[in-house]
Design a protein that fits this description.
The termini are close together. The chain is α/β, with parallel strands linked by helices and 307 residues long. The relative contact order is 0.16. The radius of gyration is 19 Å and the shape is globular. A hairpin with a 7-residue loop joins strand 1 and strand 2. Strands 3, 5, 6, 7, 8, 15 and 16 form a seven-stranded mixed sheet that branches.
Length: 307
Amino acid sequence: MHAAVITEYGNEPEVIDVEVPELPADSVMVEVHASAINPIDWIIMSGAMKEMLPYAMPWIVGYDVAGTVTEVGDDVTHLKVGDDVFGRADGTQAATMAEFAAIKESDLALQAKSITHQQSAGIPLAGLTAWQALFEHGALESGQRVLIHAGSGGVGTLAIQFAKHAGAWVATTASARNRELVMSLGADQFVDYSTEDFADVVEPCDLVLDMVGDDTLTKSFDVVKGGGRVVSIKGQAPDGLAAEKGVTFEQFFMHPDSDALATIAGLIDDGTVRPVVDSVFPLDKVAAAFQHAEEGHATGKVIIAVR
């Protein structure tokens, strides 16, 4: 089968022929229609996490997947051949930019019926990150105020919609060219990060969701109410800052969750949430897709069309 791989750390991905993976008893074989690029992909490709995740080379790139089940393992109980599914593979099965991928049943959910495989492929990692940041770590409730940084990105576009669905008031930072997009997703306040200081224009919030890190993360503590929360996927806050401000800080990494994916699929099918796709590249243009994504200006998700 064709797959996008790296043969050593630091390389750009290339498409080569590899063997179809073996199917563990707890997994299903997915005929992959689409995958999506996430920052974790190029972090892994750089070798920055090789001590934590020592992948054998050649390594098939990709964690997000959308496709159709073609075979089920002996211990699979819910999914069946022919099901259209989407999900985020765990670290041991990351290999989704390929014509076939073996994925644990527990990491997959039935795809929303109202969208395409390509749209679905951009949901899992970004959607679970947004969901877990807001509700598991941020404890967001109806009537609260939340500031979502990088609202036009893959995580941000979904986080805005999830927060509005939960009944929150939402402010978001983005570039001027994406103002119309984030407002159409439900944001109540837009902040142009290139011309405005969010700490000067956003009233105190119950929660800040940080996808930027560095100075943006540190300054986020200035707009949180006492007893509020700052949740980041990009970095650690300076020591003692949360205690000084009387707030809670958490940095986290998302985990696969088929139940949350099923809930998100339902929100898509009832029209509450819509995926935002920046661009679609065919598998044989995967290197160009990564170059585009790493420039950092994508609006929504960059998708790899495998089929």
